Amino acid sequence: MLEKAEGLFSEKGFDATSVRDISKAAGINIAMISYYFGSKEKLMEELFKMRMSVGLASVKEIAESNELTTIEKIEKALTGYIDRVKNNKSFYKVILAEQATNKNKSVIRFLSKSKESYAQFFATVLSEGYASGAFKNKVDPVLFITTITGTIMQSLLNKHLYATHYGIKVTEEWIRDVYFEKVKEHLKSITRNILGYESNS
Questions:
Q1: CA 85 distance to own-chain centroid
Q2: 19, 100, 118, 171: least surrounded by Cβ within 10 Å?
Q3: Is residue 62 part of a domain?
């Protein structure tokens, strides 16, 4: 049900998607949506909780790892985020739309709390990097997140621009196997430059 709603929100927008549309796509009775969620707005909130809990659990695990270096923690968090965008493009289009319209206050509050959790993660890992001498340049963790997520979201929106510029035929396979891998390498390069990180190898 949530996945069907997600696809419709991405394609048509939240306002233009009716409860009837969702029930039809999911092959269920309209009453079931009211029973489980109460409203379309509450359904949207549950969708955000479901999708974003995966990322938050991932960075928590990364932060607590004793086997990863500071740069590995940051790069694993970034590549994990890119993979989630790659595998759930519809959801991240919904995120962009929700932030632009700013209508569902519960969703915006949940997004803000999630962003703060990511800010805390990066603040902690960056501090570890400064303490160890791995990172030479001090950066603001919130602006660092803005740089990274902004790059990823713009990459999602501008994949056709990239393909047109280089004369590449856009296919789902190219987007999945080539384009997003290029985005990962680009972000790793940006991150290392911003932080003043130099590999010892």
A1: 5
A2: 100
A3: yes
* Residue 178 burial (CB count, 10 A): 13
DSSP state of 135: -
Q: What is the per-residue pLDDT for 89? A: 87
Give the pLDDT band (50/70/90) at residue 200. Answer: low
Give the number of domains in the chain. 1
Residue appearing with tokens 């789902």: 172
**Which DSSP letter does residue 64 get?**
T
Q: What is the largest CA-CA distance in the chain?
A: 61
The one-letter amino acid code at 198 reads E
Q: Give the mean pLDDT of 75-99.
A: 91
pLDDT tens for 105-135 read 888 888 888 989 999 999 999 999 999 999 9
Assigned token pair, 112: 């803000």
| 84 close to 190: Cβ distance less than 8 angstroms | no
Assess contact for 106 and 41: CB atoms under 8 A.
yes
Hey, what are 13's tokens?
A: 């927008």
Q: Is residue 135 included in any domain, yes or no?
A: yes
Task: Select from 80, 81, 78, 83 the least CA-distant residue to 188.
Answer: 78
Confirm whether 115 is domain-assigned. Answer: yes
Residue 63 is encoded by which pair of tokens? 């932060």
What is the C-alpha to C-alpha distance for residues 133 and 176, in angstroms, rounded to an integer? 36
Cβ neighbours, 10 Å, residue 133? 7
